[in-house]
Amino acid sequence: MNKAGSLARRCRRITDAAWFSTLAFVLILANAAVLGVETYAGFKARYDAQLTAVEDVFLAAFAVETALRALAHADRPREFFRDPWNVFDLAVLLLAALPFAQQNATALRLLRLARVLRAARFLPQLRVIIVAVGKSLPGTVSFLLVGTLLLYVYAMVGWVFFADDDPQHYGSIGRAALTLFLLMTLDGLGDAVRGGLEISRWSILYFASYVLLASFVLVNLLIGVVIQSLEEAHRSEARRERPASDTELLHDRIAAARAALDELEEGLAAVERERSGGRQERPRVRA
Fold first, then answer.
1. Which of 188, 232, 231 lies closest to 207 in space, CA to CA?
2. Residue 40, SS3?
3. 237: pLDDT confidence band, cut at 50, 70 and 90?
4. CA nearest to 71, candidates 123, 126, 124, 20
5. What average pLDDT does the segment 66-76 reach?
6. Phi, psi for residue 167 in degrees, rounded to 5
């Protein structure tokens, strides 16, 4: 246990150093550059062996990085797997080593591309955005359901009133839904309103209510969901950083206390041995 704690402390001093994160980030950027170079067929055909060797070097470097991060949690392995980025890094490395990835060029390229996504680990603001996107998914799903229902209702109404006069845009439920989906971005709204007024003057109510609900109410609701998710992500990131430093300090104090207790026990044991040795020698002197 003491050996694991000592190893973890030494590895933590490496992984917590600023140069370690900088080096890992530079390697990720270099890996991204090499992946971009490989898209040029002529360059890849000419330097295929060299590019393969460079990729192997990157893979080995990322494997060493992940191993150091894992060894930094040698005294508490569960903490390593509680960090989603550690799990992501480990999964990318293990999947790249599987036979199906080595034999499938597309899968191997995707896994190499996944290594580039690790750059978010070293950019706190980008990490916050990714967390916010994940937290906004439930609200986004609700938004999509409401938006789909609204689009369907208005598409059916548009088909009923405009299908005969404008079959190109409202001839079926699919065409009507596509037309209204494009109108959600307010693109071509003027032409749609003019075409509707030629059919009926009451069509202005149809388009005005749709634009009000779809382009203003729903979009603002989505923006509200995203902003709330960003605020939650900022708070969770702040909580994640503060307890991490406190936990590290607490673990170091516990390790130091254990080491002091071990030294104290060894000292007491030595004193007991000296006392017991003294008792055994006294009878011999008397004899």
1. 188
2. coil
3. low
4. 20
5. 86
6. -65, -20
Nearest to 55 by CA among 103, 98, 113, 107: 113
Q: Identify the residue with better confidence: 284 or 197.
A: 197
Q: Which residue has the tokens 């996504």?
A: 117
Q: Using a cut of 0.85, tell me whether the model's pTM lies above it.
A: no
Structure tokens at 173: 């439920």
* Contacts of 81-90 spanning 24+ positions with Cβ under 8 A: 85/118, 85/121, 88/114, 88/117, 88/118, 89/62, 89/65, 89/118, 89/121, 90/66
Tokens 């008397």 locate to 286
In the chain, alpha helices (H) = 2-15, 18-37, 41-46, 48-71, 77-82, 84-97, 99-103, 105-116, 124-162, 167-170, 173-183, 189-199, 203-211, 219-286
Residue 243 tokens read as 């307890």
Q: Per mean pLDDT, which range of 58-62, 127-131, 158-162 is the poorest?
A: 127-131
Mean predicted lDDT score pLDDT of the chain: 79
pLDDT surpasses 50 at 94 = yes
% of the chain with per-residue pLDDT over 90: 1
Amino acid residing at 35: L
> Which amino acid is located at 223 in the chain?
I
